[in-house]
Amino acid sequence: MDRETSCQLFALSFDAKEPASLARFWSRFLDWETVDDPQDGIVLLPGDDTGFRLRFLPSQEPKTGQNRTHFDLTSTSLEDQRRTVDRALALGARHIDIGQLPEEEHVVLADPEGNEFCVIEPGNNFLADCGFIGALACDGSQEVGYFWSKALGWPLVWDQDQETAIRSPHGGPKVTWGGPPLEPRTGRDRLRFDLAPTAHGDLSTEVDRLLSLGAKRLGTGQDETGSVTLTDPDGNEFSVLTPR
Q1: Which residues fall within 8 angstroms of residue 79, CB to CB, at 6 or more apart?
Q2: pLDDT exceeding 70 applies to what percent of the chain?
Q3: Which domains, ranges and CATH numbers included, belong to the chain?
Q4: Is this model's pTM higher than 0.85 or not?
Q5: Crossing angle for the helix pair 78-91 and 19-30, nearest 10 degrees?
Q6: Is residue 166 exposed (0-12), middle (13-18) or buried (19+ Cβ within 10 Å)?
Q7: What is the pLDDT of residue 2?
């Protein structure tokens, strides 16, 4: 991370009708430790090189439409792919149809609250050097890929045909954007990025930097936790948290 990049991807937040139940599913599925944090709610800490945590926040808004972000999970063999799918189903996931073609070899599932994720077939070259969470796959424009590369200080690892991907210099999952056409927005994003200033950053300076890169402020200022909500160039909400 270069000196001018003063924030990190702290967490991916899930809105959930039953946060404890959804956190339990993902904790068991990923084998990540659960922490009940008075500041951050129910949190899962990664047990690998993922580099960010998962937060589960209460929300009574119903899920409408397909999420704009989902996990692509990797497999080492067809048997490994089957084991991953079977484990997910045993924990409460289900098969879903989002228009995938019969010849496509990845398996599309949804967690107990309907959040989509894919178990990718073995031999996927793009995710070959990634861990179990191979990618956060997002619906988004080329412009938003450039924005997040600058916002996080992560280099572009793919930029072709308006599709982009970035990855932390320290490894972990790739974050990908599939380019146009974008799916219509249906309500608030249920999965959102949470950024946190690094040791040499502060909240107001970081918010100003992100605004200069193309973010927009949502609302009038800090919420009750002191965090600031912004939107990226595609209109996706994200939060800049108070320094940890």
Answers
A1: none
A2: 94
A3: 7-240 (3.10.180.10)
A4: yes
A5: 150
A6: buried
A7: 44
- Amino acid at residue number 38: P
Do 16 and 62 touch, CB atoms closer than 8 A? no
Distance CA 244, CA 156 (A): 27
Interior/surface letters 214-230, b for 16+ CB within 10 angstroms, e for the rest: bbeeeeeeeeeeeebeb
Q: Which residues lie below 8 Å from residue 89, measured CB to CB, with a gap of 6+?
A: 95, 109
11/14 Cα distance (integer angstroms): 10
CA atoms of 32 and 27, how far apart (whole Å): 5
Mean pLDDT, rounded, for 198-212: 88
**Alpha-carbon distance 183 to 166, whole Å?**
21
Neighbours of 6 (CB within 10 A): 19
Q: d(Cα 54, Cα 67) in Å, to the nearest integer?
A: 16
First to last CA, the chain: 18
Those residues whose C-beta lies under 8 Å from the C-beta of residue 238, and which sit 6 or more positions away, are 192, 193, 194, 195, 229, 230, 231, 232
